[in-house]
Amino acid sequence: MTTQPVGLSIDLAPQQVMRAIDGQYDMAVWRSTSGVVSAWENRCPHRGMRLSYGFVRGESLACAYHGWHYSCEGYCHYIPAHPELTPPKTVRPVLYSVVEQSGLIWVNTEQDAMPVALPDDLQPVRSLVIECDLATAVQALDTRQPHGGVESLSDTPKIITFETGGISQGAVVAIQQSQPNRLIVHMLVQSAVTAKDKIALSRLIESVRRQAESACNEAT
Amino acid sequence: MSFTLHNYVLSGNCYKIRLMASLLNVTYESIAVDFHPGQEHKSEPLLQLNPAGTLPVLTTTDGTVLTETQAMLVWLAQQHDPSNSWWPVHSKPQITRVVQWLGFASRLTATVGELRLHSMLNKPVNVTAVKTGAKVVLRELESHLTEQRINNLQWLTGDTPTVADIACFPYTALSPDAGIEHDDYPAIRRWLHRLRSLPGFITMPGIYELHELRKPDGYTVSDATL
Amino acid sequence: MNGIEHALEYWYPIAMHNELSNGQTRRARLLEKELLLSGGANDSLTVTCNERPLALQSAFDHWWVTLSENPLPLFTIPEADEAERRFVPCGVVRVACSPLRAVENFLDIAHFPFVHTDVLGAEPHTEVYKYDVKIDESKDEVIASNIRFYQPQAAKSAEGGIETEYIYRVPAPMVAILYKTCPQKADAMDVIALFVQPLDEQTCDVWPWMALYDDTSTMADLIQFQQLIFLQDRSILENQIPRKLPLDPGLEIPTRADLTSISYRRWLKKRGAYYGALENC
Ligand SMILES: N[C@H](CCC(=O)N[C@@H](CS)C(=O)NCC(=O)O)C(=O)O
Ligand code: FES
Predict the structure, then answer these.
(1) Which of A194, B8, B41, C92 has its CA 20 to 30 A from that of B206?
(2) Could you tell me if B98 and B206 lie in one domain?
(3) Which domains does chain A have, with CATH numbers?
(4) Nearest residue in chain B measured CA to CA from A128
(5) How many domains does chain B have?
(6) Angle between the N-to-C axes of helices B127-150 and A195-219, in degrees from 0 to 180, rounded to the nearest 10
(7) Are residues B70 and B104 both part of a single domain?
(8) Phi and psi (nearest 5°) for A134?
(9) With an 8 Å Cβ cutoff, are A80 and C239 in contact?
(10) Angle at Cα A136 formed by Cα A135 and Cα A138, nearest 5°?
(11) Which residues span the domain enclosing B59?
(12) Number of folded domains in chain C?
């Protein structure tokens, strides 16, 4: 089981909840008011509501349906319908291992999350969903860099140098294989890069997406 | 009462006007129209008011009848926003961008809005076409908001919200009603959350209030804590 | 087998009265079968499945259809005969959820402060006090009573918050009826029902219906108040996992506030009403 990058840290501000999908695993990923990130099974133990629809109060995630509050350790500590009740310790969704490093949120649903080592001092460009298979996406990426050779992208994030439209820019590209035909490309750059070049990279990755998705559609 | 609104509770376009009025703290008279199941917007009295047979319809005290929501938003801002920030008349470049996004809002209605009416009320539509169209517009919006973030700008056309943000908000926020989750759109999620935090924000079915802003004792926390 | 045989025994709502004019037709789905509805003269209706005409009856401003040759009798709502009430059919809303989840949500009060905020509930008034649930043996219905809950705006006609009393009835697996304090008439209760048309195990069309004492609100106002509430529920219903309702305790954890839901699930299981449930019978 590999550790997957599920999002850019910047896209999960304090008091925000998002959903991440890793194959069969549907997760609610949330950040507490003080900044702690957690990744849980996306199902409230009470009546099955997706916790990614929930809201954050202080250091708790509350379910959107009946407002049950869960602490960062996953334990339910407040049931609004029974304010005096101390809920049993068994009321707890499944917790997954999550680590924040290099501006990315990394999750492992089966063992301890082990992020890939990346340079310090990275800044986010964006995360972008591409609806195609990995091989097609890697091929499309390959056509955008003069020196080729991104085949191993599937295993680890890579620093690749794009050279297009007047920019020559190294960017970190980490691909999350969310589902067989749903990839999420997380892109970061070294901090000296200007806003203008970040925008150029954002547009470039969109262009890669158009290429990859149309190749994928032609194949089917 | 500054105007009368022919209104339907589940309409994202009617909600645009209710929301703008609430953000500007304007009161008005609301007349409920039985859009579903009654199809009252296609009845003779309503067609006399708006031959297009759409909602909302805004009538001002001087007898002006507006049937396009983007015009209603501009009218509201002109009448009730002395700061001129929601309809930024003093900045020519910004107002051009505002008009660009007002136009874009109609594409959201035509795609996400139609798909939502199909999913909820079984309205006959070309499902494949509106689904594809919805993805195209949401991706455009996502990319634009990403670039705004890179430029340190929080809103669609600059560093303050305008009528353009209100015009694009409802159907973007309501896309889960149509089966399109916000999972794939992180920049949109941040923008929606920011808009829902504005003082005077109101909800509609499918768009919840930010319970995080309430304390369990029922008092609302000011947005300074965000 | 998924309990479809059992589900076939019942009557289901398929259209509102006067919905189809003479000569007008519409397709519909019920329990995975395709139906054709045709309006006739004098507000009549015929419904066919593979050209076979189906038995129909009219009740509570709706047409009810059955696919069975020998169906169970349709339940009754005595208040439907009280002429002073306003009868409000609210149209139909499609929901991507199990028909049983739609009914169960209707029986739930603990969600009011979070899903119907400032209308049917508001923090800090979240506590669900002890109430009674029983199976009425003579009618074979689930009945919950003695329920009290503080509501900021209990009905269209309510002015300000009131403590509302509720009674719930489940007369058939896909029908729920509630009685609640009527803000305009102290000695009477408003009636609100949810009639569910199962398209398949994970999709349903829901027809809310009301019988109220309210002589101030317009019809459009009453319908929109109900639609406001139900469409808030819809976003929840489409996001419950799994889509089908688990009947066996174990997968989901109830509390005392969920007594009605617990009894409903047991009652479904006992009668073999597994259509839309997670378990097979
Ligand atoms: N007039 C346009 C369209 C408004 C619109 O599409 N309204 C919908 C309700 S959300 C409607 O009335 N649809 C009925 C129809 O198109 O027949 C606007 O103001 O943007
Ligand atoms: S389903 Fe989460 S609190 Fe009830």
Answers:
(1) B41
(2) yes
(3) 4-108 (2.102.10.10), 123-219 (3.30.310)
(4) B184
(5) 2
(6) 160
(7) no
(8) -65, -45
(9) no
(10) 65
(11) 3-80
(12) 1
Inter-residue long-range contacts of B97-103, CB under 8 Å, 24+ positions, other chains counted: B97/B156, B97/B157, B97/B158, B97/B164, B98/B157, B98/B162, B98/B163, B98/B164, B100/B164, B101/B156, B101/B157, B101/B164, B101/B165, B101/B167, B101/B168, B102/B70, B102/B73, B102/B74, B102/B163, B102/B164, B102/B167, B103/B70
**C75 inside domain:** no
Q: Which residues pair with C42 in a beta bridge?
A: none
Contact call for residues B18 and B202 (beta carbons, < 8 A):
yes
CA distance B51 to B42: 9
Indicate the average pLDDT of chain C: 96
Determine the 3-state secondary structure of B11 from DSSP.
coil
Query: For residue B217, which residues of chain C lie inside 8 Å, CB to CB?
Result: 123-124
In this predicted model, what pLDDT tens digit does every residue of B68-127 receive, in sequence order? 999 999 999 999 999 999 999 999 999 999 999 999 999 999 999 999 999 999 999 999
Is A67:C126 a contact under the CB 8 Å cutoff?
Answer: yes
pLDDT range class, residue C1, cuts 50, 70, 90? low
Q: Nearest to residue C240, comparing CAs of C110, C101, C144, C82?
A: C101
Ordered DSSP codes for C178-197: EEEE-TT-TT-EEEEEEEEE
d(CA B133, CA B73): 25
C253: domain CATH number? Answer: 3.90.380.10
B164: domain CATH number?
1.20.1050.10
> Which residues of chain A lie closer than 8 angstroms to B147, CB-CB?
199, 202
CA distances B130 to A97, B68, B179, Å, are 39, 21, 12
B42 and B97 in a common domain: no
Interface test with C, best of A17, A49, A51, A65 (most C CBs within 10 A): A65
Across the interface, do A67 and C236 touch by the CB < 8 Å criterion?
Answer: no
B46 and B109 co-located in one domain: no
- The single-letter code of the amino acid at C83 is A
> Could you tell me if B117 and B204 lie in one domain?
yes
Give the DSSP letter of residue B112: I
Q: Look at residue C254 and tell me if it is in a domain.
A: yes
ipTM of model: 0.96
Residues B127 and B54 occupy one common structural domain: no
